[in-house]
Amino acid sequence: MIIYGTALLAVCHLLGIFIGDLLGQALGVKTNVGGVGIAMLLLIAVRLYMQKTDRLPKLTELGVEYWGAMYIPVVVAMAAQQDMVAALRGGPVALLSAIAAVGVCAVVIAIINRTEKPEVIAELVPHHHDNPLLADSE
């Protein structure tokens, strides 16, 4: 059943690459635009749909979760294949988009940290008096 999760990823990957190629053609570039990201979004959407309709066995879900955890290494490997030198020579757009992405991430993280309630954080931090091993050392 875990293999079904891998098969589901393969279908989503092929669709994502196809849609990324179509998006690249629509934008007038001769490359795939966001195929891996689109594939992962499709995988998330299909998994949520299948869970909601009770069509996702536990073992299949484990296969999907495995590939969901592999998302970052896959994206890093795909990005390593890109020709960054040519992108930077082609104009400052790549550099500006990278700086903008880092800036947006920093702002979103700051907003999330500021909106989180201190009570929730206090509940997550273990107290010394709750742990008998740590209480003896005080």
Automatic annotation (TrEMBL):
This is Malonate transporter MadL subunit. Keywords: Membrane, Transmembrane, Transmembrane helix. The keyword Transmembrane applies. The chain crosses the membrane at residues 7-27, 33-50, 62-81, 93-112. It comes from the Bacteria. InterPro entries: Maln_transptMadL. The lineage of its organism: Bacteria, Pseudomonadati, Pseudomonadota, Betaproteobacteria, Burkholderiales. Pfam families: MadL.
